[in-house]
Amino acid sequence: MILVLRALGVGDLATAVPALRGLRAAYPDREVALLAPAWLGPLVDLVGGVDRLVPLDGLDADVCWSGPPPTVAVNLHGRGPRSHRLLAAVGPARLVAFSCPEAGHTDGPEWDGTEHEVRRWCRLLHRYGVPADPDDLALRRPVGVAVPDGTTVVHPGTKVEAKRWPAHRFAAVAAALGARGHRVVVTGSAAERDLAGWVADRAGLPPGAVLAGRTDLAELAALVAQARLVVSGDTGVAHLATGYGTPSVVLFGPESPQVWGPPPGRPWHRVVHGAGQDCPTADGESTDLRLVSVQVEEVLSAVDEVERTVRGAGAVAA
Q1: Is residue 286 pLDDT above 90, yes or no?
Q2: Which residue from 70, 183, 276, 286 could staple onto 1, CB 3.0 to 4.6 Å apart?
């Protein structure tokens, strides 16, 4: 049994795909179980190589583990100490993890906060003799899921307020793309339905363009897989676009695109990263001025660059 911890969200799981596939290839005859939130189940199925999902909603939850101790436990969650201790508690014969003296684990590699998230986990496995290809990011396409084809997905929401580009600017981008002939839809979670509705209304889109809260995870993945373009902040939808090779423009503020952005060498993805710094607000939240500095014209220019790249690739292929 190989037990893997990655109890985070959509983007986190998508960036761990090469590492998960490396483990599958290294242990073809062992069961690979993944500790992750249950709602990620549809996406886990699209990764491939994971035999069983063991529900775990973050590090504060209890691990429902009743089987024998795993042969190997792999920490793809973080650098410890809590994540290391959670895995150590199930009694694995071997722990694969970054070095963390505080958790009593010192034989792993040192953590590097500046490296790309995909390469980080591949490097960890390499240290323990498990090959993993950081370019192996492609996700399976959902089967039997009916969604509109060829839409332009505008995704204005994120779980982190500081990573959310102003809604009126998303609306301006959606309106401009609609005027260019794009079939724009606005996506998001059920909690973001009002935000998506406001963006669509301000952009002059019909009510049917609002898909926030109307798609499950498999439907959202299918929508991105079949999309013409994705425009979003630094959130899970952007990583789905990377996994499906869907042209995208991703807006970054507080996080570094060198760590969380689309991997280099993929010109059909563009990152827009503004200048400035964080500014604390009166209520203690943080508004990232780097993101606020990004203008509508910059995003539309990035869209133009992406579409020229796609057209050029199509011409070469023809």
Answers
A1: no
A2: 70
